[in-house]
Design goal:
- The chain is an alpha/beta fold and 259 residues long.
- The chain has ten helices and ten strands.
- It has helices spanning 12-16, 58-65, 88-97, 113-123, 129-142, 158-170, 188-203, 215-221, 239-244, 249-257, and strands at residues 20-29, 32-42, 47-51, 73-78, 81-82, 98-101, 176-180, 207-211, 224-229, 232-237.
- The strands form two sheets. A six-stranded mixed sheet has the order 6-7-8-3-9-10, sandwiched between helices.
- Helix 4 crosses helix 5 (129-142) and helix 5 packs across helix 6 (158-170).
- The chain is globular, with a radius of gyration of 18 Å.
Length: 259
């Protein structure tokens, strides 16, 4: 993947530091422990595919990284800033660093496509309206929807709505983008147009953590594949190795179940 260019003042040590660091992370819902001590470091510009059966903790992990879920033990840090439960200011700062795209598109139905993309930068970053509109038009062009600025969400296909959701996440200029099974709600013929946009982001050096059931895409685009099983990182490594030479019976069973 293309590396993100570091500024000339960046030291070698800071550029080598992980952009995301998850340490001994534990998360329970009542008596059900969903994450059982997750350790994960993600380098700037790295593309990580997270795979595993439903219920293995994949989406919960992303939601903890984005501060949408509180966790009981361990830690999450993004760009060197730790996420602290109950610290609203730290959470707001984190959300400006971490974008998230969900299975459902979650667009505001009463706002046009352009307004959906402009909303967070104008409200949160206090971006001037003209600049926000220019940036929104640029992002919509990037995802292949330049002509849809004034359209309403219900006038778009599912694939188009998901591409608007990607543009909306990018409008906050995040350092990290989390993608939670973003094609699972789409008809099969619409999956490709969304994955093409994600592939272009990866090629441009965006740091991506994506939970996905699209194994061919994960193999093609990711730098590293993380296989989660029963709340733990069970196996992780190079995509060709993980898919071509799985090291555990659990991963072999999971991959064989997909065919």
């Amino acid at each position: 993947m293309a590396a993100v260019l570091e500024s000339p003042v960046s030291s070698a040590s800071s550029s080598a530091a992980p952009i995301v660091r998850v340490t001994a992370l534990r998360k329970s819902y009542g008596a059900n422990e969903v994450l059982k001590g997750i350790d994960l470091e993600v380098k700037r510009g790295e593309v990580i595919a997270i795979i595993g059966k439903s219920g293995s903790g994949k989406s919960t992990l992303l939601r903890c990284i984005n501060g949408l879920e509180t966790f009981q033990q361990g830690g999450v840090a993004v760009a060197g800033q730790p996420l602290r439960a109950g610290d609203a200011a730290a959470l707001r700062a984190l959300r400006q660093q971490v974008g998230m795209i969900f299975q459902g598109f979650n667009l505001f139905p009463h706002l046009s496509v352009g307004r959906n993309v402009m909303l967070a930068p104008t409200l949160v970053k206090k971006k001037e309206r003209g600049a926000a509109e220019a940036h929104a038009r640029q992002l919509l062009q990037r995802v292949g929807l330049a002509e849809k600025f004034d359209a309403m969400p219900d006038q778009l296909s599912g694939g188009q709505q998901q591409r608007v959701a990607i543009a909306r996440a990018l409008a906050m200029e995040p350092a990290v983008l989390l993608c939670d099974e973003i094609t699972s709600a789409l008809d099969p013929e619409l999956v490709g147009e969304v994955l093409q946009v994600v592939e272009s982001l990866a090629a441009d050096g965006m740091t991506l953590l994506m939970v996905t059931h699209e194994m061919g895409f994960a193999r093609k685009v990711s730098d590293r594949v993380v296989f989660m099983h029963q709340g733990r990182v069970h196996e992780a490594g190079d995509p060709q190795e993980v898919f071509g030479n799985p090291g555990t019976p659990e991963l072999r069973t999971f991959l064989s179940s997909l065919h």
